[in-house]
Design goal:
By secondary structure, this protein is α+β, with helices and mostly antiparallel strands. The protein has one domain: Umud Fragment, subunit A, CATH 2.10.109. It is built from four helices and eight strands; from the N terminus they run H-H-E-E-E-E-E-E-H-H-E-E. The radius of gyration is 32 Å and the shape is elongated. It comes from Allofournierella massiliensis.
Length: about 220
């Protein structure tokens, strides 16, 4: 039972450390992480995909290189960059269809929010599409936003240190309890009592050492 609990604690610690390292690496070297990790979490900030995807949902997206071929099915959810009134944002909407844009001279991908057929006014090109939807976790976006912040990383590191120190203290106490139990065990038949080497009986009163009998094969 104790061994199983120890294994669970070790696995939890490893998972917590892996999450912390991933968030720290992504905050410091996002392009390098994206090169080796094709998946990324995004947070839905608005209700444009409700009720299917409520606000502050955590969305896992499989990222696609800008030069990779893309085949989308109607109503498939994609994540893309968009220009909203001069502000660069990242949007997650449903794909509708493609059409040729004379002004841009290339194909654009038309999208729409959840629950309506009204198309977005964005002219989304292939280079704007970041990836395709895999799954989402409702309301966990707040947690991810906090963990990606400097205070979140500090709190995560602090909790990891506290957990490791707590496990070290528990291990030391368990070791001490085992030693105490061994000292309190009654002597076995056939053993012998001896004084500690280099100590006279008069000077070492009460410091007898018990030697257990050797097991016979």
């Amino acid at each position: 039972m104790k061994r199983l609990r120890l294994i669970k604690n070790i696995l939890f610690c490893l998972l917590l450390g892996a999450v912390g390292l991933y968030l720290a690496a992504y905050s410091l070297w996002p392009q390098t992480v994206e090169r080796y990790q094709p998946y990324r979490f995004y947070t839905v900030l608005t209700d444009s995909m409700a009720p299917y995807m409520p606000p502050m949902s955590l969305v896992l997206v499989r990222q696609l290189p800008a030069d990779a071929p893309l085949e989308l099915a109607p109503e498939q959810i994609i994540t893309f960059r968009a220009d909203r009134f001069g502000q660069q944002i990242i949007q997650t909407h449903r794909f509708s269809h493609t059409e040729w844009d004379e002004e841009l001279g290339q194909t654009i991908y038309r999208t729409h929010p959840e629950g309506t057929a009204d198309l977005d006014f964005y002219k989304t090109t292939r280079q704007d599409i970041l990836g395709v939807y895999v799954f989402h976790l409702p309301h966990l976006g707040k947690v991810m936003l906090f963990l990606q912040s400097p205070w979140g990383l500090v709190l995560l590191g602090e909790q990891l240190v506290i957990f490791l120190v707590n496990q070290l203290i528990k291990a030391r106490w368990a070791e001490r309890e085992q030693q105490e139990q061994k000292r309190e065990q009654p002597p076995q038949a056939g053993g012998s009592w001896r004084f500690r080497r280099g100590c006279a009986p008069a000077a070492c009163s009460g410091r007898w050492r018990y030697t257990a009998p050797k097991a016979r094969s």
